[in-house]
Amino acid sequence: MDQLLLPYPVALSVPCRTTRQPGGPVVRHRVAIEPDGSVVTPHDLDAERIACALGGYLTCVDLVDRGIPALQRWVRLVLRQEELPVVSRDDGSSWLPSLAGDCCNRHGYQRPEVAFAHGRSPGHLATVFGVDDELLRLLIEASCVPEPRGPREEPEMRLWQCGLAPELVGRIRDTVQAVAPLTASDVLAMVAASRDLSWLDGGAPGNARRLRTVITRLQGRAAASGAVVDDEVRAQWARSSAPRWAVAVLMPAGYRPEDLVLIASSWNVSQTVAATVLASWAGNGYRVDPRALCGPGLRHLRMPPGAPSPHAVDRLRAALSSSRRPVPSETALALALAEHGTVALAAAALRRASP
User: Fold this and answer.
1) Are 64 and 39 in contact (CB under 8 A)?
2) Distance separating alpha carbons of residues 321 and 334, to the nearest angstrom
3) Which residue has the higher pLDDT, 314 or 267?
């Protein structure tokens, strides 16, 4: 293995077995792992592999052939060196680790953060690489690779939690060249729409049509948000306690600090929470009236609702397209999803409400 694995050599004591069955004889001995991933053991591994091919077993063969690749994957995920650690098969409605296994939820995970956390867990990696769970945990503990401190500002903070490095986010931003700042949802929408990231280097991406649709939507939204902001409104935002990243989304979209006051007082939450919620709507391209987020139809919720995903809105529009009645705007569809929770319930409610 020629790839750098660790920043320093690691030595550890390994419980070596000749059978997978519990209760068999165990001999502890020293194993050294070099920074390039090569392993030094007291065994003749070539001879032991022949024995394993004939039905035998040796822990150290598992360690070298399966444990080290699993450890390398874990290190790359922790250091955010995997370009595409999570993928979506349905344009962002659900997410899976890019190396999925039998241990993954067969329906995927609703949030990419959860998919990434599962994908870097020792149990998942042990399943994917076919290595003993305890052996992999021993290797991870001995490696002592600390997780770097992630960004503290959005959108990079959330994307770091999804396994995406700030350098990758910067490349996406430079490639798309949107006028308005990209939100975490924007970046995830592009990741979900493409099967790979070859388009960042000028290549032909998988799902090219879907990716172009997402980018066109983002650039159109950016162009539409290029309105001139009044100096007094800009000064009001400068005095606001809202996060700077949220201000960068809300101010070009035409919102004012008093909109946050309205949401915060109606829901009894902080203005930071109100800014985060409203920015999620604006960041997804919805121009929702703040009063609509405080209406009676949403009072059954515990918190002011964030924006539904564009994928869910597209599914709702498709569900209503068979009707001869006009389909509501994207913002109205998104509000219906926030109120009713699912595409089916929102579609039924909108059909009942139509004249």
Assistant:
1) yes
2) 15
3) 267
| Between residues 344 and 249, the one the model is more confident about | 344
**Percent of the chain predicted with pLDDT > 70:** 93
Residue 30 β-bridge partners: 13
Q: Is the preceding peptide bond at 25 cis, omega within 30 degrees of 0?
A: no
Matching residue, tokens 């700042």: 181
Q: Could you please report the per-residue DSSP string of 96-132? A: EESS--TTS-TT-BSSHHHHHHHHTSHHHHHHHHT--
* pLDDT above 50 (res 199): yes
pTM (2 d.p.): 0.67
In the block, residue with structure tokens 């694995």? 5
Q: For residues 296 and 118, what is the distance between their CA atoms, to the nearest angstrom? A: 37
Q: Measured between alpha carbons, how far is 219 from 167 in angstroms, rounded to an integer?
A: 21
Sign of CA dihedral 162, 164, 170, 175: negative
Question: What does the CA dihedral 259, 260, 263, 267 come to, rounded to 10 degrees?
Answer: -160
Nearest to 94 by CA among 246, 286, 266, 312: 312
For residues 3 and 68, what is the distance between their CA atoms, to the nearest angstrom?
11
| Spatial CA neighbour of 124 closest among 136, 111, 113 | 136
Cβ distance 315 to 328 under 8 Å?
A: no
Q: What is 49-77 written as a DSSP string?
A: HHHHHTT---HHHHIIIIIHHHHHHHHHH
pLDDT band at 161 (very low <50, low <70, confident <90, very high): very high
E strands, the chain, are 10-17, 26-33, 39-40, 86-87, 96-97
Q: What span, in angstroms and rounded, lies between the C-alpha atoms of 274 and 247?
A: 12
Please state the length of the chain: 355
Average pLDDT over residues 187-191: 88
Which tokens is 27 given?
């001999």
